[in-house]
Design a protein that fits this description.
The complex is a heterodimer of chains A (188) and B (280). Chain A has a domain of 111 residues: Potassium Channel Kv1.1, Chain A. Chain A contains eight helices and three strands, in the order E-E-H-H-H-E-H-H-H-H-H. Chain A is 52% helix and 6% strand. Chain A has a three-stranded mixed beta sheet. Helices cover 30% and strands 29% of the residues of chain B. Chain B is built from nine helices and eleven strands. In chain B, strands 4-5-3-2-1-6-7-8-9-10-11 form an eleven-stranded mixed beta sheet. In chain B, a hairpin with a 2-residue loop joins strand 4 and strand 5. In chain B, helix 5 packs parallel to helix 6. The N and C termini of chain B lie far apart (52 Å). Classes of the chains: A mainly alpha (188), B alpha/beta (280). The interface between A and B is medium-sized, with 34 and 29 residues. Chain A: Belongs to the SKP1 family.
């Protein structure tokens, strides 16, 4: 059940969250895990870096993989694009065991990437990175009018919302009618 | 502009809330106006201190720590959309100017909307009576019906009827501070609400010693009075001997006769002379 090279019975990652480097402290061998996204490209990430993700941290704690098992069974995140997962892994590596600064200027400015990054980070439960991403999303509409905000964030107009609602009701009605007819057919 | 899709409302509700919490109050208000569904999403009740200034360009000031967002309205369409930021001693004021055919109505409407959307607490009201001759009572009535109370009020203006100013003092609920920089035609005493802690009168030609003796605040500042040194001496003695003004902590007044002040104003009173300071 060991996840570290010392063979401890705990599956918790070997590294503490704060910087372990100290002249007197003995060198602790790092344990690694593997993750892949939609593109199946496997990323090797240290347990310390993965501590940023509450989801992965929980998975590690629950599964208690050895390093060999972890290598053979990378955590699959099929809902995350490869380049986005790469960004997340890079961020976790850069901020491994470090206090996170109040601002992070390295986040993507492109809307599509940022949107996917927010989805991924929220899914992986990386709180600090999510905070940065949310700030970046908020910056998109800084000083904008309601109309501009609607355009930038692709918010449907009231008319579009109403039309979508009508359409959904219509569809639900049809489905209900279909189910009733099917049930009547079964009864016969 | 980047044309890639960013469907904000498709984000997880937790993320949407996190983003909305990050928006500054003006952006948050604008988001809530983007559609009915945005209004429904705008349920975060961050508490803000708000000031209202009734001047030639009426404004709503919304403070968030070191940054204050100032929404001003103007009837000059040429300067619509102007923005500028002022910074001083680590604080900044981000100002936006918006055109309106009726700036006062737009300002009131904005305040009421902000109040319905967020937790706003009215901190300060400033009214320049010169900019609203004949309309001051209407403003006071609006404030009375829409704002429970304000921490502070400043009124300014020249040559207004006393009853117009008194109407404001009688009808606005104040907690802390009242600053009156108004000259009245009649130059008659004003009835000051007893709820306040601090009173500042800039044009105090009507302030008599009887008037000073009747006040109960913690802090008075009077300028432009005609109080004689003999009268000030009576007041000081009464204060020192705790015969009156038991809550008073600070008193400032102009001197009509500086030369005789020590000899007459401070007669029989122990004192220390501090460094001279500039006038008001």
């Amino acid at each position: 059940m060991s996840s570290t090279e010392q063979g401890t019975s705990s599956a918790a990652p070997a590294e503490p969250t704060t910087a372990p480097e100290s002249a007197a402290a003995p060198e602790v061998p790092e344990s690694f895990y593997y993750v892949h996204g939609k593109d199946k490209v496997v990323h090797k990430v240290s347990a310390g870096a993965l501590q940023h993700s509450a989801l992965i941290h929980g998975m590690i704690s629950n599964l208690g993989y050895t390093e060999e098992q972890a290598k053979a069974n990378p955590f699959p995140f099929e809902n995350i694009d490869g380049d986005i997962l790469q960004m997340v892994v890079d961020w976790c590596n850069q901020h491994k065991g470090k206090p996170t600064p109040p601002e992070d200027t390295n986040l993507p400015k492109q809307k599509e990437k940022l949107f996917d990054l927010v989805l991924a980070v929220n899914y992986l439960e990386i709180k600090e990175l999510l905070t940065y991403c949310c700030k970046q999303v908020a910056m998109m509409v800084k000083g904008k009018s309601p109309e501009e905000i609607r355009e930038i964030w692709m918010i449907p107009t009231d008319a579009e919302d109403e039309a979508a609602e009508k359409e959904a009701k219509k569809r639900a009605g049809k489905e209900a009618a279909g189910e009733t007819a099917a049930a009547a057919g079964d009864a016969k | 502009m980047d044309q890639a899709p960013f469907r904000f409302v498709d984000l997880d509700y937790v993320v949407i809330r996190e983003v909305l919490k990050t928006l500054d109050p003006i952006d948050y208000i604008n988001f809530s106006k983007a559609s009915k569904s945005c209004k429904r999403l705008s349920t975060i009740k961050t508490r803000y201190k708000v000031s209202l200034t009734f001047t030639d360009r009426p404004a709503v000031w919304i403070g968030t720590g070191p940054v204050t967002y100032v929404m001003k309205w103007t009837d000059n369409s040429l300067i619509d959309g102007s923005r500028w930021t002022e910074t001083c001693q680590g604080k900044s004021w981000k100002r936006r100017l918006t055109y309106s055919e009726n700036p006062l109505s737009s300002m009131k409407e904005f305040y009421l909307y902000a109040r319905s959307l967020m937790g706003v607490e009215l901190d300060f009201v400033l009214m320049n009576m010169d900019d609203y001759r004949g309309e001051c009572r209407e403003i006071v009535d609006w404030l009375r019906s829409n704002c429970l109370e304000s921490s502070a009020l400043s009124v300014l203006g020249e040559r207004h009827r006393r009853e117009e100013l008194q109407y404001a003092l009688d009808n606005l609920k104040l907690k802390d501070s009242l600053k009156i920089r108004v000259t009245t035609i009649e130059q008659l005493p004003l009835v000051i609400p007893e709820s306040i802690e601090e009173l500042h009168i800039t044009y105090g030609s009507w302030v008599t010693i009887e008037y000073v003796m009747s006040l109960k605040m913690r802090n008075f500042t009077f300028h432009g009075t005609k109080l004689a040194n003999q009268e000030l001496n009576v007041f000081y003695k009464s204060w020192i001997e705790m015969k009156s003004h038991q809550s008073l902590e600070y008193f400032e007044v102009n001197l009509t006769d500086e030369e005789d002040f020590v000899a007459v104003g401070l007669r029989g009173i122990p004192y220390e002379m501090g460094p001279p300071r500039p006038g008001p």
